[in-house]
Amino acid sequence: MKYEPFRLERYFAEYEFSINRQLSSSDCESISLNTLFDLLDYEEKKEFMNMTFGYTESSGSIRLREEIANLYSGFTPDEIFVAAPEECIYLTLNSLFEKGDRIVVLSPIYQSLVEIPRAAGCEVVMWPLLNREGNWEIDIDFLKKTIREKPVRAILLNFPHNPTGFMPSSEDYRELVDIARKNNIFIFSDEMYWLLEHDYREPLPSMCTVYEDSVSLFGMSKSFGLPGLRIGWIATKKKDLYSKVAHLKDYTTICSSAPSEHLARIALRHRDFFIGRSRDIIRSNIDYAVGVFEDLENILEWNEPSGSSVAFPAFKGNIRASDVSRDLVKGHDLLMLPGKLFDYDDRYFRLGLGRKNFKDALYAFKKYLESRYG
Ligand SMILES: Cc1ncc(COP(=O)(O)O)c(C=O)c1O
User: Fold this and answer.
1) What is the 87 CA–ligand 1 centroid distance (Å)?
2) What is the CATH number for 96?
3) From atom 6 of ligand 1, which residue's Cα is the shortest distance away?
4) How far is the CA of 41 from the centre of ligand 1 (A)?
5) Which residues contact 282 (CB under 8 A, 6 or more apart)?
6) How many A from CA of 323 to the centre of ligand 1?
7) What's the confidence (pLDDT) of residue 16?
8) Last residue of some domain: 270, 287, 309?
9) Distance of CA 201 from the midpoint of ligand 1 (Å)
């Protein structure tokens, strides 16, 4: 096989649907079709009932792309390309990279963002996020040094970041763009957790609106809580990249699902409801988690997230997250993702803060830790 197994997705494939209490889901709570219907006015309902199931435009229906383009100032529908989020990564990275390209990838990272360039024969430099006393940081000096050593073709970013919930300051974000522009470096910006900035933070501007040599990825899976739609998109001003992605999609799904496109368009129109709801759930879960981590301060280390629906805390001492997660799935009906699945230190584990039953899962986790390590 050209690609290494996707550790996290294989782990989920094994346990996600047999374990009831999820500690590490990255998506936000979903809603029923009934709830969605309650949001719609008469015209929208009529339009939904008259929907047909034909093929759609390969790049996404024009009406969906119009709605998406509204999210990005200065963008038109023909600069938006629709596909499932993971498919967008596959199509875009395969269109961008060739053997020998030197690229910098933030670390830890959602595995396909590093695996696809590696399989294409790129020289991949991992750019580690730093953890300074419970706060995540990017190391701009590391990036500058890497660029000085040898030219870099692209940087792959993901803010707000999975799994840490990290977001750079506006100053660091601007400096990153300046460095890329000065050195002629392309930016792939995975923004799947966009609009989930925590209360005290302003959303960062989407990369494609502040840097012309870039592509931004977003979609319905995380912030909107609608991963089952399988609708995502890229936004880019790079026409050559856009055509290559379109070319490749003819060999994956040809076009997206018509009902999903329709529902995504409706959800985008009601985005304040969806995003507000997700943020409320996350805020309440973070408050609860902080309390639990205070109670268990001898065992657990809280690492502050500044956005997204995830956080990446750690165990103290010799406790290994992979041992704990094995124990949890075996006898405690709890699913937790150890840092190892992100090719990272085994003290760390991911928390998923977007689900309504997170508190129940965390409470059970607390009881387990108290009895085992307390
Ligand atoms: C950073 C990041 N990018 C992309 C994806 C892929 O999204 P999807 O599963 O909806 O295809 C995920 C999913 O977890 C993610 O966390």
Assistant:
1) 10
2) 3.40.640.10
3) 86
4) 31
5) 28, 196, 198, 309, 353, 354
6) 25
7) 85
8) 270
9) 22
User: From the alpha carbon of 27, which atom of ligand 1 is closest?
Assistant: 14
State pLDDT tens for residues 57-107. Answer: 999 999 999 999 999 999 999 999 999 999 999 999 999 999 999 999 999
User: Residue 212 contacts by C-beta under 8 Å, 6 or more apart in sequence?
Assistant: 237
The H-or-E segment that residue 144 falls in is helix 140-149
229-257 per-position pLDDT tens digit: 999 999 999 999 999 999 999 999 999 99
User: Which ligand 1 atom is the nearest neighbour of the CA of 219?
Assistant: 10
Dihedral-angle region of residue 308 (phi above 0 means left; psi in -120 to 50 means alpha; beta otherwise): left
Ligand 1 mutation target, pool 25, 222, 226, 337, most atoms within 8 A of CB: 222
The CA distance from 146 to 153, in Å, is 12
Q: Quick one: what percent of the chain has pLDDT higher than 70?
A: 100
Q: Which of 216, 250, 270 is the last residue of a domain?
A: 270
CATH number of residue 338's parent domain: 3.90.1150.10
Question: What pTM does this model have?
Answer: 0.97
Tell me the two tokens of residue 254.
Answer: 């040809």
227 lines ligand 1 (CB under 6 A): yes
pLDDT recorded at residue 374: 80
